[in-house]
């Protein structure tokens, strides 16, 4: 068995409680696939807000699950920009326990190993391909889809990108982790070689070099015909997890959080430039 990699490098922001405090605009829908039933959070533009017809963002969670920190708040933020946003629970039993819990302190390695075995391709790919993609296409008329991820979510994101779905236009990684594939003895270079859409990766100073500027992913994208559309940016004063788990009471994190969402907003608008309407 491969050694268990860590999605979150030492010094990262830890698990964070759900940050919405009951103010979320979206709702859960129940979907079914060959790997089981699961919930998907759906957030859409509100009355009077711009609507980006046919555009859908699929968010993939970090290792702590769909309720990790500001994950759903960020979904709502992009919905307010006119996107239909979905956050499927692609993890079989949810995210791993918080490192602050007794079970994590006693069973850290077994918990992480169990999470990895329970969340292989055989779990999340049927959910994405059999349920999520058909749902957004049929129910929302999605014709332009972007994938966005936090941390662990980079693994299902790259696995889905390997399939080269024709309506997926781009991918965004907030402090993404490419290390998960090593647990399954998969080749990251081969995965990245299969990617056929532009990528935006935002990394912190303690993230692995493979997701940083001029790292493994960046070099793979430099070989693509769309290389000029890709962007790899290092937030040199931030650590892994700042976007959805960092403390916004700290001014530097709050500033970097806003800048990160602005980076993604600009990238998405460039990659999916359809007309907006009321």
TrEMBL record:
InterPro entries for this protein: AB_hydrolase_fold, Dienelactn_hydro
Pfam family, one: DLH
The Dienelactone hydrolase domain, residue ranges: 56-270
Region of interest: Disordered: 1-31
GO function term, MF aspect, one: hydrolase activity
Lineage top rank: taxon: Eukaryota
Name the UniProt record assigns to this protein: Carboxymethylenebutenolidase-like
């Amino acid at each position: 068995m491969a050694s268990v990699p860590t999605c979150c490098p030492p010094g990262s922001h830890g698990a964070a409680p759900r940050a919405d405090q009951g103010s979320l605009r979206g709702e859960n829908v129940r979907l079914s696939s060959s790997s089981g039933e699961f919930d998907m959070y759906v957030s859409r533009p509100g009355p009077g807000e711009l609507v980006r017809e046919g555009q859908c963002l699929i968010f993939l969670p970090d290792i702590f699950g769909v309720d990790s920190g500001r994950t759903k708040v960020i979904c709502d933020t992009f919905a307010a920009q006119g996107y239909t946003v979905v956050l499927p629970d692609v993890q079989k039993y949810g995210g791993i326990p918080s490192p602050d819990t007794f079970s994590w302190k006693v069973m850290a390695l077994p918990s992480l190993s169990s999470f990895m075995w329970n969340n292989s391709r055989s779990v999340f790919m049927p959910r994405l391909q059999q349920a999520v993609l058909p749902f957004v296409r049929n129910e929302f008329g999605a014709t332009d889809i972007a994938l966005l991820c936090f941390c662990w979510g980079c693994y299902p994101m790259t696995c889905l990108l390997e399939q080269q779905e024709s309506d997926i236009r781009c991918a965004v990684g907030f402090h993404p982790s490419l290390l998960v594939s090593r647990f399954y003895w998969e080749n990251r270079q081969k995965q990245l070689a299969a990617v056929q859409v532009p990528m935006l990766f935002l990394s912190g100073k303690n993230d692995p070099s493979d997701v940083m500027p001029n790292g493994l992913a960046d070099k793979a994208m430099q070989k693509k015909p769309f290389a000029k559309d890709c962007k790899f940016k290092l937030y040199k004063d931030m650590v892994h997890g700042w976007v959805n788990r960092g403390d916004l009471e700290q001014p530097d994190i709050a500033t970097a959080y806003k800048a990160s969402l602005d980076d993604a907003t600009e990238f998405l608008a460039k990659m999916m430039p359809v007309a907006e309407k009321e």
